[in-house]
Design a protein that fits this description.
about 325 residues; 8-stranded mixed β-sheet; alpha+beta; globular; about 20% strand; 13 helices
């Protein structure tokens, strides 16, 4: 007796688009998140997901009928690795920093310039395999994704497939056209590199009762233009990065001074969440239209009663990605 899955697969192989969608739609979101972890960019992940599905559609006759999920992950992983091999991912040239620039006192940032946030609303809770080493929450945190970008591409893929998704060493080896011994060797190096750069104090924690109140106090201080209030709500080792700008500010006072310069006293915000952490879209006034226009998104890490990190993304296209309004009434 032919199972429903076999029937759908047969129709898809005969060119039925609806049947192909029925097979692959259950995996679209997790494949998108997988591409995002490998690439660090939401938009790049979207492009590579489409390439993955097109490749799967064109190569469906080569699917051996075992695990469709593993087969799709193999295609997605190799598409991402090919993309990284073929693309120059060097930081964009930045303008010289003058003495009067607010960046004149900023430190150079080692954050990947292409890093983008991922909306919580698009993340499905997946049960990782029994051999996974990371919880789903930790493996989508901005700090974790940024750390992955510093790994060589083969190590990065092996770690995500093995330690995040929980595929076996044999499965990972098959996906990467490698051997279990080579996968385990790459994993040892990747784990050592990633652990040395991780900061356990700044790992995103589960939502806590005071998290929203802490973020709201920070937002209120920003909207009031209360510089001292902003300083008081930042940890002593707070850090603010701003991909794709190669700068960062360290410490409460430099961060507060920059925010005061960048936004003035009339910023408005709309709350959201990204990478398992609190975030908000921020809006600047348009003096000619009587509205506030979206200027970007900030993702924050709450540590106790204060904020320990802020990551500002100034790409306005992210506003639509997060489903936020482009303007709000002044």
């Amino acid at each position: 007796m032919i199972s429903m899955t076999d029937s759908v697969l047969a129709r898809a192989r005969s060119g039925d688009n609806g049947a192909f969608a029925q097979l692959t739609d259950p995996y679209r979101r997790e494949l998108h998140v997988h591409c995002y972890r490998i690439l660090g960019s939401f938009q790049d992940a979207e492009d590579l997901l489409q390439e993955t599905l097109l490749s799967a559609w064109q190569g469906l006759d080569r699917f051996d009928g075992r695990s469709l999920r593993a087969w799709l992950y193999r295609i997605a992983t190799n598409r991402c690795l090919n993309y990284l091999r073929d693309t120059s991912r060097r930081p964009q040239a930045s303008s010289p920093v003058g003495l009067g620039s607010p960046f004149a006192t900023a430190a150079h940032s080692g954050e990947p310039w292409w890093l983008e946030p991922y909306p919580d609303a698009l993340i499905d809770e997946l049960e990782p395999g029994p051999e996974a080493r990371y919880e789903s929450r930790e493996s989508i945190a901005l700090s974790f994704v940024a750390g992955l970008q510093r790994l060589p591409t083969q190590q990065r893929a092996a770690l995500v497939l093995r330690d995040v998704l929980g595929f076996s060493a044999a499965e990972v080896a098959e996906m990467l056209d490698s051997t279990p011994a080579s996968v385990n060797s790459a994993l040892q190096r990747a784990r050592a590199s990633l652990e040395s750069s991780r900061d356990p104090e700044h790992v995103t924690l589960p939502r806590s009762p005071h998290e929203a109140q802490t973020v709201q106090r920070f937002v209120d201080a920003l909207q009031r233009g209360d510089l001292e209030g902003v300083v008081a709500l930042l940890t002593e080792d707070a850090r603010m990065t701003m991909p794709p700008e190669p700068f960062e500010f360290r410490g409460p006072r430099p961060i507060a001074d920059f925010l005061s310069w960048a936004w003035g006293n009339d910023v408005k915000v709309v709350p959201t969440r990204a990478n398992g952490a609190p975030a908000f879209g921020y809006y600047r006034p348009d003096p000619h239209a009587g509205v506030h226009r979206a200027a970007g998104i900030i993702v924050v890490t709450v540590e106790g009663e204060r904020l320990s990190s802020l990551t500002r993304f100034g790409d306005k296209s992210l506003i639509a990605t997060f489903g936020l309004p482009r303007t709000i009434t002044s």
